[in-house]
Specification:
The structure holds 3 protein chains of 3 kinds. Chain A contains 5 helices and 11 strands. Chain A is of the alpha+beta class. Chain A has a single domain, classed as 2-Layer Sandwich (Alpha-Beta Plaits), CATH 3.30.70.20. In chain A, a hairpin with a 5-residue loop joins strand 4 and strand 5. In chain A, 59% of the residues are buried. Chain B has an 8-stranded mixed beta sheet. Chain B folds into 3 domains: 257 residues, Rossmann fold; 194 residues, Dimethylsulfoxide Reductase, domain 2 (3-Layer(aba) Sandwich), CATH 3.40.228.10; 119 residues, Barwin-like endoglucanases (Beta Barrel), CATH 2.40.40.20. In chain B, 32% of the residues lie in helices and 17% in strands. The two termini of chain B are 24 Å apart. Chain C is mainly α. Chain C has a domain of 129 residues. Chain C is built from 9 helices and no strands. The two termini of chain C are 20 Å apart. Chains in contact: A-B, A-C, B-C. Chains A and B meet through helix 1, helix 4 and strand 11 of A and helix 1, helix 2, strand 3, helix 4 and helix 9 of B.
Chain lengths: 186, 733, 268
């Protein structure tokens, strides 16, 4: 059976430090504003008690990728293992993929004048290495899971701020933050 | 063109194109085209890897692996051989390639015509050395000594070889020194009185703790690698309690968060102690065998402290204090980590003593996985051979003169006989980091010559006469240890220094050469030397034995990182304290000698003045260490400007909405910045994170007064600054 | 501002297609248009259509690779738009050729095919934007709006050129007023669907109506509507000057409407 690889992001562990995002930028030597992975702040009452909560997302390697349908040159392919790959050689920089993606994942690279997005480091995966963000997260909060093999306990596919998953069926799943006890003065 | 409606979009686009422009010269030339697999791209050139050490003023002091392709750094990451770094870096460490190849680096020596004018002209190193050396010699001639020359150097780079700057200044004669530290002094003195020295357990032992209290510490932002061990412990069932006035990122991960009123942590600890004593939960054997003054302390607590009082004082409900006290006292071992922020108050030292006492009465000191952990310096036993050359013959004066680093501006202005006329600044950014920056500026105005060695055009460089471009860790050699973990990390030279940059050691040798040319014998610092020899000279038999390495070169060849042997990784394991009595001193005569109460008593917090009722805290920020890192464009792309955190209740009272511009003001200064409305801060407090944002002409210290902490003279020479006893008012701008 | 090339492209291409269909229809029905007038109108439409293509290239990061945009015609509406619009421009050149050669039968046939292809191009163009990721766009009103631009601007453009040439034999005011009424209804539909839609759509409505551009757009629309209403019964007003003025007003109105359509496109 074919694989269905996707990110599993553990919000419980995530400290919102952006090391995933910056290690990716460093490894791929991206331009300063290019963000293949993005860490976003969640509403602070997301788990009931007020906390600083963040979620890190990259390309969601959707089952039904909108980018692939929007692209006029066919630069997007979905591999057997589920990874959505963007072929920059074909890209003409029309930016329709960025518009069509509910998660605004593909970004226009103002220097190369082409679109750019996370590849789940497929070239690293192909030689048995982990994606950079997975390997470099100081809290080990990001994993790659074959969702055809396992459905991790507590994993959910929808969280606040994450766009309606019925549009493109993203493979990314999340483990939510468990609220602790608080004794606050205000 | 389009106002309100589209301003945000336009702003984003504007910043995108700006960064693209900045990126042109540097990152793009090496950027892979398309998705060429990395391995394939690498096979074209010569690929080498080097070990580096992150030398910043940080708990984590990481061991780094640097990948260099054809003489250019292509990736920087953590060293997997270091079980604390674990092959990963924090967000700041991950920006290191940009730190090196930043378009903002200072590339060659420059002279400024008119301080603050921005009118810089490029000069050669020889010209720079000549100007500086002539000034030094002229001062010596005019004043009969080099005391009018003041060094302000601290923690921008803790590579052991960077002490060459201190060494160079000592080699020209007696000088004036900025003494002390804004970091840890009150807490260190407190632990010095209690135990003889601050000494912490190996942070990897969080895994051995049954109970963890992070007391005013925010490792999620300031020590990500420790946070990993804490999170692991938590997942294994260790209870994590965070006591903090703010709901920090770490507090957000706690099993239990306790919001304490700022600067009343001592009352909380004493309240817990009262409960523990009342319920016979303390370790009678431990205190009778290992401490002195317990009975005096016991009676002080019985007489002066009640849990009700502590609840009233701290804002923590009585049942919570009682429960936490019971849990802490009965967990074995229980671990406390006291953050530096907690002691940046006028009663900081007293609070640390109270928390120490809590750990001591429960017998948690000297236990693996336990301890009252604050800071440690057990692994810093290098030779410091760059510092030992002494003043030249005929130096005027008798010894160095000290001014308090924590009240630098005022004390420089006060110094007479002789006055201070020249400043050498290295590894430090006083214009951004010191309290009362206007006073610091006045002190600068009094100088004939200000020389700053730095990487970037920061606030201090902008107000200097000469800037000397320095190397990043990747362009020079060195060795580093941590004040927290127990590893020693080698720093190899990974690439040739970019532009005309030099290390502080090379600058010391270069200036010495010029001084000796102009006036032979005027500087004792060696004029030549291979940095590899210099770094090898730092190693002595004790440190080699401690880390089980033969030499620096041996360590370089064998993984670049080594851990100290287990004999020292459990603090006070032998229960032989370094106090005069050799025991834990609840009653400290040394404390009394420094004018403090001998017991860990409660000391009142600083009271807010009427006109300025709001506390403004300036804790560390996740994208920066002091004024480093945040200004890099990689991080500016995530957070482009400072902001002020305000509780919704306070915001409502002041009619401030999210993102409104807010003016924050007190008698020291004011600034205007956007508001972030958040429940993460209490309603009587606002928070502005520490940092230097590029293009922002103010820092968090604009309203900070040089208010002293209660302790610091004993171990650090000077008291610290009560950064968090900063009171302000705010209004909608 | 970023999508300005697309604003210009969509408005101009829709104007060209609408004008083309009008010319073809009048020519077929009345056969009163002289060869030189037909040639002038046809040429100007080809020029407008060509400018639209050129401007659209400025939107691309790689304009010289634009030819590749037809590769994914099987799934991508953008590919289809490019293909069909390209086809339309080609056919309109051929159509102009048949004006030059004065061959009415071929003109009629090619014009008919180009009309269908042009309509498919506008349909594809609208489909590109009807995507869930941008709630303000993801509605059938996008389709209506794109076709209405064509119907508002095309006949008026051809009408004013015919008036200049003194060959106007149809009441353009009547056609245009109906398209304006339809546009007004669609506008109401558009805003009410935004108001009842996802937060991003609500925000788009707020951004649109809270900007002065919206009021310019509405003002020009209303003035044009008023003048056209007066001119229906008043033959003396059906002259080239009035139609030019109305056309300019409506062109500004449509252009600004499209500009706001892009600028307020809040992503999910």
């Amino acid at each position: 059976m074919a694989k269905k690889l996707g990110f599993l992001v553990n919000i419980e562990r995530c400290i919102g430090c952006h090391a995933c995002e910056i290690s990716c930028k460093s490894f791929y030597q991206l331009e300063p504003n290019m963000r293949r992975r993005r860490v976003q702040e969640l509403p602070e009452d997301v788990v009931g008690t007020p906390v600083r909560a963040f979620v890190s997302t990259a390309c969601n390697h959707c089952d039904d990728p909108a980018c692939k349908k929007a692209c006029p040159v066919g630069a997007y392919t979905k591999r057997e293992d589920g990874i959505v790959v963007h072929n920059q050689d074909l890209c003409i920089g029309c930016q329709m993929c960025g518009k069509a993606c509910p998660y605004s994942v593909p970004m226009f690279n103002p220097v190369k004048k082409k679109m750019d997005k996370c590849s789940m480091c497929y070239d690293r995966l192909d030689v048995g290495q982990l994606p950079i963000c997975v390997e470099k997260c100081p809290l080990e909060a990001i994993q790659i899971v074959d969702y055809n093999e396992v459905q991790p306990a507590n994993a959910v596919s929808e969280i606040p701020t994450f766009a309606d998953t019925s549009i493109t069926h993203p493979t990314t799943h999340f483990i939510l933050h468990k609220p602790g006890k608080q004794s606050r003065r205000f | 063109m389009l106002t309100e409606n589209f301003s945000r979009r336009t702003f984003l686009k504007g910043s995108a194109s700006l960064s693209a422009l900045l990126g042109l010269g540097v990152a793009t030339s090496q950027a892979p085209k398309g998705l060429i697999p990395k391995a394939q791209a690498k096979s074209n050139g010569k690929v080498e890897q080097f070990y580096n050490a992150c030398p910043r003023n940080c708990y984590d002091t990481c061991s780094i692996v640097t990948t260099v392709e054809d003489g250019r750094i292509t990736f920087i990451t953590g060293n997997e051989k270091n079980t604390y770094t674990k092959g990963r870096l924090c967000v700041k460490g991950n920006t290191y390639p940009r730190v090196v190849y930043s378009p903002d680096r200072i590339k060659y020596p420059m002279r400024q015509k008119g301080r603050g004018s921005g009118n810089w002209e490029r000069i050669s190193w020889d010209e720079a050395y000549t100007i500086i050396a002539k000034k030094i010699l002229a001062i010596k001639k005019e004043y009969g000594s080099t005391l009018p020359i003041c060094l302000n150097k601290y923690s921008g780079n803790f590579n052991i070889l960077n002490y060459a700057t201190e060494g160079m200044l000592s080699s020209i004669g007696y000088t004036t020194r900025a003494q002390g530290t804004p970091c840890d002094p009150a807490g260190s003195d407190a632990q010095g009185f209690d135990m003889g020295a601050p000494y912490n357990n190996d942070p990897e032992q969080f895994l051995d703790a049954d109970y963890i209290i992070l007391w005013g510490a925010n490792p999620a932002w300031t020590s990500a690698h420790s946070m990993y061990f804490i999170e692991q412990a938590k997942e294994r069932g260790t209870k994590l309690v965070v006591i903090d006035p703010l709901i920090t990122q770490t507090a957000s991960k706690a099993d239990e968060y306790i919001q304490v009123k700022a600067s009343t942590d001592g009352a909380l600890a004493l309240g817990m102690i009262r409960y523990i004593l009342d319920h016979q939960l303390y370790d009678k054997n431990w205190v009778s065998q290992n401490s002195i003054g317990f009975n005096e302390f016991f009676s002080y607590v019985k007489k002066n402290i009640t849990v009700e009082w502590a609840a009233e004082k701290t804002g923590v409900p009585k049942p919570v204090i009682e429960r936490i006290a019971r849990e802490y006292a009965t967990a074995k071992p229980a671990n406390i980590w006291i953050g530096f922020g907690m002691q940046r108050h006028v009663n900081g030292g007293a609070m640390v003593r109270a928390i120490d006492a809590l750990a001591a009465i429960t017998g948690n000191i000297g236990k693996k996985g336990g301890g009252v952990n604050y800071i440690g310096e057990e692994t810093w036993g290098f030779n410091y051979s760059t510092m030992g050359f002494g003043a030249p013959e005929g130096s005027g004066g008798e010894a160095d003169r000290y001014v308090n680093m924590n009240n630098f501006g005022a004390q420089v202005l006060d110094a007479n006989d002789p006055p201070i006329k020249m400043m050498w600044i290295a590894c430090r950014n006083p214009m951004a980091q010191d309290p009362e920056p206007t006073v610091v500026k006045k002190a600068f105005d009094q100088m004939d010559l200000i020389v700053t060695a730095d990487l970037y055009m920061n606030k201090t460089v902008e107000y200097s006469d000469i800037v000397l471009p320095v190397t990043t860790p990747f362009e020079s050699v060195g060795v580093n240890v941590s004040y927290w973990h127990y590893w020693m990390n080698v720093n190899e030279q990974a690439i040739k220094p970019l532009y005309e940059t030099k290390s502080d050691l090379e600058i010391a040798m270069g200036l010495s050469k010029k001084l000796n040319q102009l006036k032979p014998g005027s500087c004792t610092f060696p004029v030549t030397g291979d940095p590899l020899d210099w770094v090898e000279k730092e190693m002595n038999d004790d440190i080699k034995a401690l880390f089980n390495v033969k030499s620096w070169d041996d360590l370089r060849k064998n993984g670049g990182t080594a851990k100290a042997n287990e004999s020292i990784t459990v603090a006070w394991k032998d229960l032989k304290f370094r106090t005069p009595s050799g025991k834990y001193e609840f009653y400290s005569k040394t404390a009394a000698e420094y004018g403090h109460h001998p017991l860990p008593i409660f000391t009142e917090e600083y009271k807010a003045p009427k006109e300025y009722p709001i506390r403004c805290m300036s804790p560390h920020w996740k994208f920066g260490i002091h004024s480093q890192f945040q200004h890099q464009d990689w991080l500016m792309a995530i957070q482009a400007h400072p902001f002020l955190e305000i509780h919704p209740d306070l915001a409502k009272k002041k009619s401030i909405r999210d993102q409104d511009m807010v003016k924050i003001i007190n008698e020291t200064g004011y600034m205007t910045l956007p508001a972030k409305i958040t429940k993460m801060v209490p309603a009587d407090t606002v928070v502005m994170y520490e940092g230097w944002w590029k293009g922002v002409n103010y820092t968090e210290n604009f309203t900070v007064k040089a208010l002293q902490e209660d302790m610091g003279e004993h171990l650090k020479g000077q008291r610290g600054i009560a950064f968090h006893d900063n009171f302000v008012n705010i209004e909608k701008a | 501002m970023h999508d300005l090339p697309l604003v210009i492209f969509t408005v101009l291409s829709q104007l060209a297609i609408g004008g083309f269909v009008t010319l073809w229809w009048f020519d077929r029905k009345n056969k009163t248009i002289t060869r030189s007038t037909g040639l002038i109108i046809s040429c100007s439409l080809v020029v407008l259509g060509g400018i639209a293509v050129l401007v659209s290239l400025f939107h691309l990061g790689q304009p010289f690779a634009a030819y590749r945009a037809i590769l994914n015609i099987k799934v991508s509406w953008l590919s289809r738009e490019v293909t069909f619009y390209g086809g339309f421009v080609g056919l309109s050149v051929l159509y102009t050729w048949f004006w030059l050669k004065d061959m009415p039968a071929r003109r009629s046939l090619i014009g008919g095919i180009a009309t269908i292809i042009g309509a498919i191009a506008i349909f594809s163009s609208a489909k590109i934007y009807m995507i869930p990721a941008i709630p303000a766009w993801n509605s059938v009103t996008t389709m209506f709006a794109f076709f209405l631009t064509s119907i508002i601007l095309g006949p008026l453009f051809v009408g004013l050129l015919l008036a200049f040439r003194g060959e106007l034999s149809v009441n353009i005011s009547r056609i245009s007023i109906f398209s304006l009424i339809a546009a007004a209804i669609v506008m109401i539909l558009y805003f009410s669907s935004l108001q009842s839609g996802l937060p991003q759509a609500v925000e788009a409505a707020r951004l649109t109506t809270h900007h002065f551009i919206f009021w310019i757009r509405l003002f020009t629309f209303v003035i044009a509507f008023a003048i056209l209403s007066l001119s229906i019964k008043n033959k003396a007003m059906c002259n080239a000057k009035i139609y030019s003025f109305v056309f300019v007003l409506l062109f500004i109105s449509e252009f600004l409407a499209r500009f706001q359509f892009y600028e307020t496109a809040n992503h999910l």
